[in-house]
Queue: 4 jobs
Job 1
Amino acid sequence: MSLPERFRFPPPVADLIGLEFHGAEDGRSRMSLEAGERHSNPMGTVHGGILCDLADAAMGTAWASQLGDGETFTTLELKINYLRPVWAGSLVAEGRVVHRGRSIGLVECDIRDGDGRLLARASSTCMTLRGDSAAGR
């Protein structure tokens, strides 16, 4: 299953940051970012929030790829471990659903550089919303 048509994609934040969506299906997704100076923190490395946005987008699209009609979701918690500094270059994020319960599930994401080195690993708890809880989302 790919992303439900009701999801606004790409969202405005993807354009703002420069995220590229490469697909989502069966609880897996792939996003990328060409990181440059505009993504830097005061020390010159890519800001951790940018890496977190990339991971969040990959995990969210992985979760969304498994939603049914009338379902949407929200993120309850997000955690990220930064493993290497990044200054610039191609970053790839791969999200995957680890566990999907009826309402709550766990999603993970690895962010790698162009050489395949692991830069960060994130995890997220997502909650599927239905009925009135899903209205307007």
Job 2
Amino acid sequence: MVKRIVIIQGHPDPKGHRFGHTLEEAYSQGAQNAGHDIQSIHVAKLDFPLLRTQVDYENSAPPEPIRQSQKIIQSADHLVILYPLWLGTMPALLKAFFEQVFRPGFALEMKGNAFPKKLLKGKSARVIVTMGMPAIAYRYFFRAHGLKNLERNILKFSGIYPVHSTIIGGIETPDNSKREKWLEKIKKLGAECI
């Protein structure tokens, strides 16, 4: 079954050429080879302000780059979110993007004090995180707190389920054989759309 996949590239460097961009290419290639439709959002190339108040979050109109991103995300069956680990979580620019995109009316329907209605049901996600530390240290010693926050408090809270994750540690070690293995694994995930 052909799926519509949206890749959200969360590295804040607009120049690209990072390992996360190479992972994006591998996932995209695997998915395209399997016949899936691919669209990408490069957060570093978008121009949008930070949200600073609850009133802005709940009532202001999203800027045009955010509205376009919402349309792309709305059309997706599956989201792939890639980012480097910075200070234990996603880079600030990616968090600001999620705050802008996942607003009431798009991700949630707020009605008084009732629990919000999840508006993004029917979509699945894969989160791919790169980091310098060993992945096992992040997952078990630090308990992957930043990743869990994204999975539980943003994606699942808005109805996206299932959410799978891939943690790639030790990326600063110049071992091309390990990188090649990761690229092959990510390419297979793209082909399987998971």
Job 3
Amino acid sequence: MFDINEIRRLFPHTKKKVYFNCASTGPLPDPAYAIQEKYYRIAKMADVGNQSEVFSALENIRRNGAKVFGAKKSEIGFGFNTTFGINLAAFGLPLKRGDEVLLSDIEFPANVYPWLGLRERGIRVNFIKSTDGFIDIEDVQKAITKKTRVLSLSYVQYFNGYKIDVDGIGDLCRRHNIYFVLDCIQGAGCEPMNMRKWNVAVASAGAQKWLLSSQGTGLFYVSDDMRERIQTPWRSWLSVDWKCRWDDLRRYNLEPPHAASRYELGTYPGSLVMAFDWALGFIIGLGIPAIQKHNHALLDSLIAYVNDHPAYRITSSRNKKHRSSILSFTADGMDIRNIHAELQRRKIITSLREGSIRVAAHLYNNQADMDRLIEALDAAAKKTRAGRR
């Protein structure tokens, strides 16, 4: 297990607030901030040069990104956000008029609107009906038709942390010859993943949440098996390998690499790339299984408290198979917005999502953070009940 005290020293926010909101946006660690600051100072003095260090960092990102996704380096590319990879799937997969795309009716919009754009091409987009905010394999099985060509789901649901049965659903897609696409932003960096085992064709994750990077950074995955089948919807001058030679740019015969990096778009945001390189190395060094164990152990304390409290009720799945680093709960007989506001007043940062308070525990949180949250929830419940008298 990692040293939580050493980790917290890298996150100055821990001295001022309790932050359980990286499922929205994660904090930037001091070393990542310092890298960006240094890069901007160099740029200010017109000293950037040929940016060879940026391209070296990109190679590290693809290598460590493969460890995050459970994939090969050749299957990983740098993207600017989750939507980048979802668009690559939506407009790159070989679909034709009359084909069907299946989504769940509880998806985050980033995994909806790119697919809805296909309706203009005569491709049908249908939604699988969820049950109490969950999608199980039986729901998926019932929704599949002879026209279904794509199934695109979130690995971990944004509002309740529900982790789908990726093994079972991936196998289902294999049997029905369906392209399986994953929005992984709420799992990348905190939950182990294995794209090849799960039969995933394309996956994507922004890095501004659990991967501790800045907005404008992310990863996407395209399986080696899919690479020649993706109809690349765009071209970039940096989708070919220049080998950092910028003195001869009229070479128009360069070929894209036999890797997912062929789908990347330049020019790259250098400062963000350098910081993202550090953040990925940091997370891989700690180990994602260790991070998951730490996060789940913290949430166990909250589960025990909510289960024993008459006013609060968990709205996430407690099934070990479907748990993640997100836990959501609501309040019966109380306005959950008032509870959320009370937490904010006490500098305990959570999110309000779909009628529940969402708690996202990550590697910089400790038991003292969770104890403060529980103490505040207790006080908020008592305050609400007293106000009714």
Job 4
Amino acid sequence: MCKYFSIDGYWKDDQTEFSECIVKEYDDSEETEERDNLIFYYGLSENEIKDAIASPDENGLEFVITSYKEINF
């Protein structure tokens, strides 16, 4: 079963903060177009999120994750 997470953080380029953005472990065909539009980012597992928090400059993302929680979506 695929997990969903709510993340808080900011964009690396201009430091603009964001909160409660939905991240999904991977892209699949489960989503409807409406629900797909609510997903901020695909392809981050919980371990990858933890690594991104621990090493924000080494993750290759355009944003920094400052906190997360698993959600039911």
